[in-house]
Amino acid sequence: MVKICCIGAGYVGGPTMAVIALKCPSIEVAVVDISQPRISAWNSDHLPIYEPGLDDVVKQCRGKNLFFSNDVEKHVAEADIVFVSVNTPTKSQGLGAGKAADLTYWESAARMIADVSKSAKIVVEKSTVPVKTAEAIEKILTHNSKGINFQILSNPEFLAEGTAIQDLFNPDRVLIGGRETPEGLKAVQTLKEVYAHWVPEERIICSNLWSAELSKLAANAFLAQRISSVNAMSALCEATGADVSQVSHAVGKDTRIGPKFLNASVGFGGSCFQKDILNLVYICECNGLPEVANYWKHVIKINDYQKARFVNRIVSSMFNTVSGKKIGILGFAFKKDTGDTRETPAIDVCRGLLVDKAQLSIYDPQVSQDQIQKDLTMVKFDWEHPVLLKPASPTALKQVSFAWDAYEASKDAHGICFLTEWDEFKTLDFQKIYDNMQKPAFVFDGRNVVNPDKLRQIGFIVYSIGKPL
Ligand code: NAD
Ligand code: UGA
């Protein structure tokens, strides 16, 4: 029986390994982590992450061929294939602060693998890492390994949160990069055989290590670039009376462009787009390519502009002041069907409104009150100027309350803002909401979830990203 161990039981490690266990009953999979609460949650009925379909997959294999454990060293020592899926955040201090990837967790995992290994292993980069990381990892492993053979593979993950299980069951592609030596090719083949249990062979792409590492950064940069492109258009639509949904539809009908990922929004969030583009920018700068670096930087600049533009629109529409006015915040997660708030645009929008002294009532079906408080008071890093951005002060938190549903959040409010496109928001009773709000009642739709015409008929003043006012 092949044994797999995955270091890092997070949004990627947990779901990815659960699906491998489900699809490969002959493989034993252990997911290990240094965090005890995380592992306890994986072993409980309340998994540490919310992901549609995940509970079901975990229930089917946990205790059979899928195990979650804090005994990191034991499981690594026993494994034939070790996936490393630890977090790789942006460095917050020192060389490259604000842009470069912080590989501290990766390096410590690699050193531990070298320490505890007694047999040959395939070590798989699952985390998103800078190009050439495999070379650094190889050095750490081979210089510490008492002659044990390690093959390093790059197998970046392309799942999106909220659709992780679907993406893993039916991936557009699986990418495996390895050394072009006989041992490297054999390792690639071994990993290919794991995925071949359920992924059609033509969707398993093999490449050299550096192409695989760079393809992951490139894919995220291209995806984020599409959103910034449509968001840039949304500003022009508002200025000219065009409707961004109609523009996206017309543009996306061109088969060379395609219809997906062209939804204008208050901005992209999530733990990876900004981090990975900054990582790309840093690599370009280090390689003497400032023009290329600047090109990608602008994708993030437009995203920051879009969030700031949304806040400005709210304040200016409400007669240039939101001081003391209740604003209902509907949705806090960075997208629907996840409880993840990392880099969610809601943080920037709420902070912006708090500076203007608004009273916020926040509702999200999956995000806890504690998490929102942490996010609003967390120290954030300004990627462009490596300085810390001021978090919301503890006094500002007195301006924040939490609601059980959208109706409570909007009761007596002057305005409501849609910041996540949860399905339940599409079927709200807007007449009831309108009746219970202060007048004039404003709606600011950062996700194009409402029908502006219908809401205007009720009496709302509606601002939707990229739509005629
Ligand atoms: P995460 O923070 O949810 O999980 C990482 C886990 O690694 C944490 O539980 C942490 O405790 C653990 N960890 C850190 N150092 C460790 C060590 N030395 N030993 C054992 N455990 C350790 O992160 P994530 O969202 O799963 O992302 C992981 C990687 O995958 C990142 O590089 C990210 O860019 C990439 N990625 C993420 C997504 C996504 O949707 N979140 C998608 C594709 C790729
Ligand atoms: C993204 C990529 O889609 C995954 O392929 C990748 O593996 C992952 O990053 C990663 O490397 O972490 P994720 O961030 O989970 O996945 O979710 P997306 O669906 O890509 O959404 C990201 C953000 O963009 C969200 O805030 C979403 O609301 C926003 N978005 C997305 C738009 O504003 N408009 C769109 O048309 C699509």
From TrEMBL:
Could you cite one Gene Ontology molecular function of this protein? UDP-glucose 6-dehydrogenase activity
Highest taxon of source: Eukaryota
Spell out the SUPFAM superfamilies in the cross-references. 6-phosphogluconate dehydrogenase C-terminal domain-like (SSF48179), NAD(P)-binding Rossmann-fold domains (SSF51735), UDP-glucose/GDP-mannose dehydrogenase C-terminal domain (SSF52413)
**A biological process from GO:** UDP-glucuronate biosynthetic process
Query: UDP-glucose/GDP-mannose dehydrogenase C-terminal domain: which residues?
Result: 328-452
Location of the active site: C272
Tell me which residues bind NAD(+). Answer: 8-13, 33, 38, 86-90, 127-128, 161, 272-275, 342
Q: State if Oxidoreductase is listed as a keyword.
A: yes
Alphabetic keyword roster: NAD, Oxidoreductase
Q: Which Pfam families match?
A: UDPG_MGDP_dh, UDPG_MGDP_dh_C, UDPG_MGDP_dh_N
Concerning Gene3D superfamilies, the annotation shows: Cytochrome c1, transmembrane anchor, C-terminal, NAD(P)-binding Rossmann-like Domain
Output a single Gene Ontology CC term carried by this record. nucleus
Write out the pathway annotation from the protein's UniProt entry: Nucleotide-sugar biosynthesis; UDP-alpha-D-glucuronate biosynthesis; UDP-alpha-D-glucuronate from UDP-alpha-D-glucose: step 1/1
Catalyses which reaction?
A: UDP-alpha-D-glucose + 2 NAD(+) + H2O = UDP-alpha-D-glucuronate + 2 NADH + 3 H(+)
EC number, UniProt record: 1.1.1.22
Q: Of which family is this protein a member?
A: Belongs to the UDP-glucose/GDP-mannose dehydrogenase family.
Identification of the protein by name: UDP-glucose 6-dehydrogenase
Protein source organism: Coffea arabica (Arabian coffee)
